[in-house]
Design a protein that fits this description.
With 202 residues, the chain is of the alpha/beta class. The chain contains six helices and five strands. Helix 1 packs across helix 4. The chain is globular.
């Protein structure tokens, strides 16, 4: 069962990112502040939901959230500052865009860069433990998938409408055959058959 709050009396924002392990496209992060009494029987880690479930929950989250924001960091910026820092930047941008200032931040994962001296806690697998992080994971995932599906129409050789830019064998084969685009992350091992990128969750 997911928890609605980590603290008793503070305004909490959950934040999470999507697309960290991709070969192409931006990394997208969301920040969400939910009502203290929030609960939902099916809201959980976005990777454990179907695309239809995520779309339905996206609208529900946007309707009930006290505040939410979704922001992305470009492949060019990812290459400049590395994917870990780009993930932090995307989270910071989403937190900055909230129209309600959080007093505590719940972060999915085990690392984070402090944001405006606001207290935070990193929660490993937090998107399956706290509603606010799960909600952020869904908003980030849906927005990123939507973007990559649009980009697939401009770059039809890479099957982004199904692989969303992740390092599938077919994606790598297309890079080898057709070369790269301006959406590919040039500092990643785009043609390697086996590397750490393959271990990231889709």
């Amino acid at each position: 069962m997911l928890l609605s709050q980590h603290t008793e009396d503070k305004i909490e924002a959950g934040t999470d990112e999507a697309g960290r392990g991709c070969l192409a496209g931006p990394v997208v992060a969301a920040a969400v502040i939910l009502p203290k009494s929030f609960s939902h029987p099916f809201l959980r880690d976005s990777k454990k939901l179907t695309s239809i479930q995520r779309l339905e929950l996206e609208q529900f989250i946007k309707n009930v959230a006290i505040a939410y924001a979704v922001k992305k960091v470009t492949p060019k910026k990812i290459d400049e500052i590395n994917i870990l820092n780009a993930s932090f930047l995307a989270m910071h941008k989403s937190l900055e865009a909230l129209h309600v200032k959080p007093e505590f931040i719940l972060v999915d994962g085990n690392r984070f860069k402090p944001f405006k001296k606001i207290p935070f806690e990193c929660i490993i697998k937090g998107d399956d433990k706290y509603f606010s992080i799960a909600a952020a994971s869904i908003l980030a995932k849906v927005e990123r998938d939507r973007y990559m599906q649009r980009m697939a129409k401009k770059h039809p050789h890479y099957s982004w409408e199904t692989n969303m830019g992740y390092p599938t064998k077919a994606h790598r084969a297309s890079i080898k055959q057709f070369g790269t685009t301006n959406l590919h992350r040039m500092t990643f091992k785009l043609l390697a058959e086996n590397n750490q990128l393959d271990l990231f969750d889709r």
